[in-house]
Design a protein that fits this description.
It is built from no helices and eleven strands. Strand 5 and strand 6 form a beta hairpin.
C-alpha cells in the first residue's frame, strides 16, 4: 500500500497536534500500522504501533501517556494524537505499515512507508 502522512507543523510546547496517515492502492484492514520519528543526525525511532486485531497498541516509553495512536479501518487511515508536546518531540514523523498482527519496533520490519511530516515544537 502507499501511505501519505500529513498534519505536522510548528507548535508551542504543551500544546497538541494530530497526525494523519491515509492509504491509497490498498487496505490497512489486516495490517499493523506504526509511527516512527527521526531527528536530524539520528536514526529513525519507533513511536507507536497499532494492530488491526483486538485494538492492541504499543508505545515508546518517551511518549507513553502523551501520545495516542488510533485507526479507522473503514477509511484506511491511522492517526497519532500528540498531547503535551515537548521540544524534544521535534522530528520528522513517518507512518508505516506491514501485513500481520505483530507490532514491531524495528524499521526494517515495515514494508510500506509514508513520506514524513515535520513536527517542530518550540519552547
Amino acid at each position: 500500500v502507499q501511505l501519505q502522512a500529513s498534519g505536522g507543523g510548528l507548535v508551542q510546547a504543551g500544546t497538541s497536534l494530530t497526525l494523519s496517515c491515509v492509504t491509497s492502492g490498498g487496505s490497512l484492514s489486516r495490517s499493523t500500522t506504526a509511527w516512527f520519528r527521526q531527528r536530524p543526525g539520528e536514526e529513525r525511532r519507533f513511536v507507536a504501533a497499532a494492530t488491526w486485531r483486538h485494538g492492541g497498541n504499543q508505545y515508546a516509553d518517551s511518549v507513553k501517556g502523551r501520545f495516542s495512536i488510533s485507526r479507522d479501518n473503514n477509511e484506511n487511515a491511522v492517526y497519532l494524537r500528540m498531547n503535551s508536546l515537548r521540544p524534544e518531540d521535534t522530528a520528522v514523523y513517518y507512518c508505516a505499515a506491514r501485513l500481520g498482527t505483530t507490532m514491531y519496533t524495528r524499521t526494517d520490519m515495515y514494508t510500506s512507508w509514508g513520506q514524513g511530516t515535520q513536527v517542530t515544537v518550540s519552547s
